[in-house]
Amino acid sequence: MLTTPAAPIAFGGSPIDRADHVRGDPDAIAALMGPSARLLKLDGLDPVMTAEGGLVWGSLADAEGDAELVFLGLEGERGCFAQVLPGIPAAGAPSWNAMNTLEPGELAAYGGARALVGWHSRHRFCAVCGAATVLAKGGWQRSCTGCGAEHFPRVDPVTIMTVEHDGKLLLGRQPRFPAHRYSALAGFVEPGETIEEAVAREVFEEAGVRVRDVEYVASQPWPFPSSLMIGCHAFADDPAIVIDETELEDVRWFTREECVDALEAVAVGEMGRAFGAPPKHAVAHVLLKWWVERGA
């Protein structure tokens, strides 16, 4: 039977100490900008990687003159930084090569840096008055040069959920998915909603299925550009499906045996007989394994 891996969920488990106590102390940050400081090398928002598949770190001497330096945290006694350059993309496609190559701690360190650098690139001007903003608190704030408003890095909560009925699991596919692949339904939490309400609304909007007994399973930071995937599971009493074709191409119920087959297939880079499971670095993959193992 399949077992859930002990390794952290992709993009979780960073070895870098976020060191909140340092962020608000300019002198402490300046003291960390010495010869031992490390600078994460990025190509836009993608990681620069070694031939062996690891992150490339340099020194602050490698930073460009017009860059803003973001304090990522501490690795032991050394400060870790990333640079925010004018003109870098505000967002971009997921870095599939990094997800497939980097070991878990490095992937998490990169994911945090990507989300933070991307946020800075999207918030160079104040949303209140339109004036330019400048980096503050080591990069964990931007302050407006006009009205003085303070802006902080944001995370967008997204519910992603499996739904169960009579021993089967509800999964859907978007047109952009690889052929044959299905995944858990998902959607952003809207203002004024609980997680449970967001799960129920999204499932009904996308598949026409009413759910109950929502439970939390696991979460995943997803830095494309800056989401927190909140993995949940729910139950349905009526299996009838009404697909929102503006969101999804197809929605189906799959048996436990079909899910086991799909998970075993994706582990060796193949598609299952009934469908292709989400890749291992997606929290949807964790949700499927959790459901399969719970029913073992």
Give the name of the CATH architecture of the largest domain: Alpha-Beta Complex
The CATH class assignment of the largest domain is Alpha Beta
Q: What is the terminal separation in angstroms?
A: 8 Å
Share of helix, binned: 10-25%
Q: Tell me the name of the CATH homologous superfamily of the largest domain.
A: Nucleoside Triphosphate Pyrophosphohydrolase
Put simply, the count of helices is: 7
CATH topology of the largest domain: Nucleoside Triphosphate Pyrophosphohydrolase
Radius of gyration: 21 Å
Overall 3D form:
globular
Architecture blueprint of SSEs:
Layout: H1 20-23, H2 26-31, E1 38-40, E2 42-43, E3 46-47, E4 57-58, E5 68-75, E6 78-84, H3 96-101, H4 104-122, E7 133-136, E8 141-144, E9 150-151, E10 156-165, E11 168-173, E12 185-188, H5 195-207, E13 211-222, E14 227-236, E15 250-255, H6 256-266, H7 283-294
Helix pairs in contact: 6-7
